Each structure stands twice: as structure tokens, then as C-alpha cells.
Amino acid sequence: MRKQIFNVVHGYQNSLSFKIYKYCMIMVIVASVLSLAVKEKLSFLVYVDIFCLTAFIIDYILRWITADYKLKKKHWTSFVRFLLRPISIVDMMSIFALLSSLFGWFSGIAQVLAVFRIIRIFRYSKSVDMILQILKRSKKPLIAVGSLAVGYITVSAIMIFNIEPQSFDTIFDAIYWATVSLTTVGYGDIYPVTTLGRVVAMMSSFFGIAVVALPAGIVTAEYLNNLKENYERK
Question: Is the pTM of this model over 0.85?
């Protein structure tokens, strides 16, 4: 029984039952987004949310009870690992968002979590799945680049905070400025006014160009390797 559920939910051999299930869930996800497109909650949308919430909970349970098939490990730890997977957390957040919307819990947080309803649809996209695999394979160099960026933001923030205390009231203001400078966004709401501060700003901008370009190069190289591997399999 569980094996049959797994075949339907996870798309074993891309069966017809999986395709029907997939498109039904996509329609449910799209329907769950309707309430986000209107300011006033219409009465029928409440019933739509209840239906979508029920579908999400059933989908989550079906995926959880077949976790050992998905993770290919017949052990109770598979069910625990399932709960900690990023996509499972996304599913749980989308369920919590609908619950919050229906019962009025944490209204501010619920609006933010509502975006997880849309993210759910990505699990049914092969392109998104390929991108996630590429990011997973590029994990170590991306973590290295991320660590470099965080380190530079920290150093830049401390430097500019001490160089220009009149322009940056708190260390958080300095971190905010260092982040937007590193990404070369530069909103212009906070900026250095002294010569030394501007030198630090220029260095941060130049360094930011390199840091932003590095992940793009890493992901592109891995993407090309992935295409080559797929071509060789064919």
C-alpha cells in the first residue's frame, strides 16, 4: 500500500497517476494563492483556503509515511530526516501560513509565510530540480564565497562605523550599508562623507563586483558539467 502511495506522490516511472496527482496539486497551490491577490477576504475564499489546507496536510502526511522509500533507507531515521529536509520545511511553513490566515494567528508573520505556498509549486518543475542539484554539487565553493562575503561585510561595517560615527548611528546601520555596497546596490540613504570613508566605500564596491560574479561563474560551470553529463548518458 505504501509503495503504491509512493509511486503516485513521488512519480515513480512518471506514471499517469503521478501526472494526475501532480496537476491536481498544482491547481490546489494556484488556488491557495488567490486569497493573497485581494485585500478583503471574500467568504468563498475561506472555503478555498480550508480545501487547500486539507490538501496540503494530506500531501504532507503521504510524503512522510513514504519517506523511507524516497530516501532509500528502511529505517526509522528516514522519517526524522524527512522532517528536516528543506522542501519538507517549506511544506510545513505553507501549512502554518494557511492555518494562521484562517484562525488569525500571528497575522504579520502569516503574510510573510504565505510566500511558501508559491514555492511549493517548484517541486514539480524538472528545471528547478536540476538547479537545486547544481547548487548542491556547488555547495562547498558557494559556502566559501558566502563566508568571504560575510567576513568582508563585517570588516567593512566595523571600519566605517569607527571612521564615520556621525553618519552611522548604530553598528546595524554600518552592516546595512556594507551589505548594499558589497552587492553594488547603493540605495543612497546612508553614505560616508569623509575622504577616508569614501575610500572604504570604493574598495567595498570593487570587491562587491568580484563577490557577486564568483557565484555566477561557479553555478554556470556546474550547469555546463550537468548538461555534458546528461548528453553523455543519452
Answer: no
